[in-house]
Amino acid sequence: MAQLIYSAIASLDGYIEDRDGNFDWAMPDEEVHSFINNLERPVGTYLYGRRMYEIMMVWETDPGFAADSPLTQDFAQVWQSADKIVYSKTLAVASTRKTQIERNFNPEAIKQLKNTAQQDISIGGPGLASHAFRSGLIDECHLFLTPVIVGGGKPALPDNVRLGLQLMEERRFGNGMVYLHYRTR
Questions:
Q1: Are 150 and 13 in contact (CB under 8 A)?
Q2: Between 165 and which of 56, 114, 151, 182 could a Cys-Cys bridge form, CB atoms 3.0 to 4.6 Å apart?
Q3: pLDDT digits (tens, 9 = 90+) for 8-17
Q4: 53/124 Cα distance (integer angstroms)
């Protein structure tokens, strides 16, 4: 059975973007990017809300974006090889290959996907992930905490959800970022 993994890069005070929607403080350096590439390599399917998909689709739609370095080229290849499911009531067509659009988040469909998928599934974006958390679907959390406090914005984790977690792995990077890998209990 595939695992449903929520991954996020967040500020130390728990936000994926600040009050103005900025997340430039969350850009990984080479050490972190290499680690993320290896972490994402086994993912077979990405689940996104519309906004997160529109942020991530540059890994396929803008060849210059990925051409920065061998690390970004590697991530682009990893991302492009995976299937994508985008949950949106407004997006008419997908701008990337291997992408399907679903109008509604259906917990039963995700359970079925977990039971049949050959590779792990990643869910990106806190809005969509909150539905999965509330439905008891998340198996693991991969959190990258950035050494910055932004004082408000979009929270990385949902409100009004209580969930026991078991710490599986931790790692400190040279830039001060910390990786925490939790499994749900």
A1: yes
A2: 182
A3: 999 999 999 9
A4: 8
